[in-house]
Design goal:
alpha+beta, globular
Length: 172
């Protein structure tokens, strides 16, 4: 699935969140049908859960307003906004927030690897179990990035943000 896929065509949207004050990354998953934002957090404690929830709360409040303003639910005949998770709620009420349990806990500064892995496991329909090896995934991601950079170099590919800066026009 591409990043620019219309939200009306998916059930879940994954997005990384940088918890700036905690120097930490978490993954959030917005599920439209369950009217919920799930938090994938590799640091688990009462304080870390509270902090992650605070960061996600802004999304929980703003996203329903955005969805209403863009007439999102008009394009989704598979979501009944009067029943199930929507029953008794206004369309602009905040989404429910739930922390995903039983995630592997990070032992080092590997929150980014944990976050990418959680996204990858979700997309592949797998569960991150207790046999998750962060070193293995870190090495795999590093290898992939290295090979991608080599391919770009040998193919003379330039990403938009790596292209030459555009000069500002001046009036003569």
């Amino acid at each position: 699935m591409r990043c620019n896929t219309n939200w009306a065509d998916v059930d879940d949207v994954l997005f990384p969140i940088n918890c700036v004050n905690d120097w930490h990354w978490i993954l959030a998953r917005l599920n439209f049908k369950e009217r919920c934002i799930y938090i994938y957090n590799s640091l688990r404690s009462a304080q870390n859960d509270r902090s992650a929830t605070e960061y996600v709360t802004s999304y929980s409040v703003l996203l329903p307003l955005f969805l209403q303003a863009t007439n999102f639910y008009d394009s989704r005949d598979d979501i009944d906004t009067t029943a199930g998770a929507y029953e008794g709620k206004r369309i602009t009420d905040p989404f429910r927030i739930e922390i995903v349990e039983n995630m592997p806990i990070q032992n080092d500064v590997d929150c980014g690897v944990h976050m990418f892995s959680a996204a990858e496991f979700f997309v592949d329909g797998k569960v991150m179990g207790h046999d998750y090896d962060v070193k293995e995934h870190r090495a795999r991601y590093a290898s992939s990035l290295y090979l991608y950079a080599r391919w770009k170099e040998s193919s003379s590919c330039v990403s938009e943000d790596e292209g030459p800066l555009k000069l500002k026009r001046t009036s003569a």
